[in-house]
Amino acid sequence: MSTFDSFKSLSRAMFLGFRRDKGALFFTVLFPLMFLVIFGGIFGKQTTSKVNVIAVGPVPVLEQALAHDSGGGLGKTLKLTRKTDRSAALKKVEKGDADAAVEQRGNQLTVHYSAADQVKAGTARGLLDSIVQSANQAASGKAPTYNMASQAVEDDSLKAIQFFTPSLLGWALASAGVFGASQTLVTWRTKGILRRLRLSPAPISTVFGARVAVSIGVALVQLALFLAVAQLPFFGLKLQNAWWMAVPMVVSGVLAFLSIGMVIGAWAKTQETAQAVTQLVVLPMAFLGGSFFPLDAAPGWLKAISYIFPLRYLNEGMLNVMGRGLGPTSALPQIGVLLGVAVVGAVVATRLFRWDDA
Amino acid sequence: MAYTIGVDGLRKRYGDVQAVDGVSFEVDEGEFFGILGPNGAGKTTTLEIIEGLREADEGEVSVLGLPPWPRNARLLPRIGVQLQASSFFERLTAREQLQTFGSLYGVPAKKADAMLETVGLDDKADVPVEKLSGGQAQRLSIACALVHDPELVFLDEPTAALDPQARRNLWDVLREINTEGRTIVLTTHYMDEAEILCDRVAIMDRGRILRLGPPATLVRGLDAPARISVATGTLPVEDARGLPGADEVSDDGVSLIISTRDPSAVVAAMAAKDALTGVQIHGATLEDVFLELTGREYRA
Ligand SMILES: Nc1ncnc2c1ncn2[C@@H]1O[C@H](COP(=O)(O)OP(=O)(O)O)[C@@H](O)[C@H]1O
Ligand SMILES: [Mg+2]
User: Fold this and answer.
1) What is the tens place of the pLDDT at every residue in B260-278?
2) Which residues of B touch A355 (CB under 8 A)?
3) pLDDT of A160-206, one tens digit each?
4) Residue A225 C-alpha, separation from nearest chain B C-alpha, in angstroms
5) Which residues of A30-48 are buried (b: 16+ CB within 10 A; e: fewer)?
6) ABC transporter domain: which residues (chain B) (predicted)?
7) All residues with CB under 5 Å from ion ligand 2
8) Which domains does chain A carry?
């Protein structure tokens, strides 16, 4: 038997203790998944809307454009419904059920839109205008002089689920890590388990190493569950090429949050204090660190504040590799910050560490 | 020849409280040694200094020839400790608990079942520790202290808060552990427990050891009277006063009690009067020793 066997057996004991704790299981695993389902379900549909156009009677220009739409690009942006009743179609546009209605008389295309929603109307008009231009150009029989190739800076599927999967996972990891570490430490101390462990010849690093290993294992399960749920067709998460970088991100995030939890647990005298302080740390961090809403559009001061929270770096790094489809190295600075937090926290926690209450 | 434990001039202060105030004693290999005293006497503090959980302000301690402070990884595998407050990993069964503690010492998992049997908990192997009764938890805690086969075992009030039957069961377990050749140091505030279990007892009060020796010697060294009691009415009080050897006679309406330094003469005289119905004879106990040493009734 070696230190490694002690490590394995301790890890097993702690894992069993966690698995049998219904409350912890709910709050670390199920509760964040519920948030994912709700947020993904509510916001997931918004950004997928296409330009909704009603064709009143035959509109050959549109039909031709759709017929020659080899790449399917037009089909992705345009949803065409055909109607013969002109006044019913206009009514729909007025009510906002459709973005525009078009009629063609001879070579004249008429677009009806509602002035109530300028943005949607503008999008519809722009799209229809480009279709007419292409048709004109094709009718001239000449090769086009200018060509435009367009390329999105982000993956064009950056939908709500692409944002919520990494950032809600970040929140789940942060609360599991901080909570788990602070509670474990305070419980072990107040219940005398630390003194008992001190009387055994096993190095204390083995004991804490086992606790860290269990947390990392649980976090990877959380990651797998999040990815599995978010990739269901209903939510439609599209994993980007470098998604596997989420694994080192999750590991360094867990280390950072455990370390913060250890500081709280080493400092707090009672479980109640530890619990309250944990909430005070995790909730603001989740909000301001960008777990519940994207910070891209947030005011500058809020963005600046967000960078004092380690969770901000985890969210950003995971969003880069999982949601935005950036390369694997895009998460390295964030990993660096998280590991730094882990080291500083561990040093502080070691300083504050006490074997027993008195 | 070195002692298994040597303690010399131990002192420990917590703020205003002088918890241990100059304690010295030795424990021999294989001995069953008891520290007896009321609550707050300083038993736990003394024990925890010897185990290496606390640092003494003054004094020398050697355990199996080694200093226990600071944390001594060479000493730890050779001692087993049952702390006053049992401490278990949460939500593990009795067996898992033992396996986990065992693994800290490099003990294979299968040893757990043998330990459970030793302390009579084999039928509780799969019960979570939170569901064990007080006595069962104490026994599990002792099993955890023994799982790595230590030469020297420390038990801090192992039978506190147990009902009489559970205490008796535990005594059997402790005797068996001692017969296996292990040295045991036990603290208790039960006089009878110390008398029954220990080879030698240190009587402790207010941080000091008042007397140290085998229980029988301590009691015999005492010039305390024996008490003979019979049911009230068996013998008139006046007759009892006239018995040869009777020092003092009292009657509380339930029992007639005769104090004497010559119990055999009194009993013989009572037998002649055919007045021995329900007779009970109490010799001096450690309680009398405590009373004589401190001038106070012993109250745990
Ligand atoms: N950690 C502590 N801090 C302050 N006082 C303590 C502490 N532990 C024990 N004491 C005090 O020291 C004295 C001896 O306590 P203890 O060794 O626990 O006695 P016992 O085990 O005989 O009941 C008591 O007066 C107790 O209140
Ligand atoms: Mg005590």
Assistant:
1) 888 888 888 888 888 788 8
2) 53
3) 888 889 999 999 999 999 999 999 999 999 988 999 999 999 888 88
4) 25
5) eebbebbbebbeeebeeee
6) 5-231
7) B 44
8) 3-45+157-352 (no CATH), 51-140 (3.40.190.10)
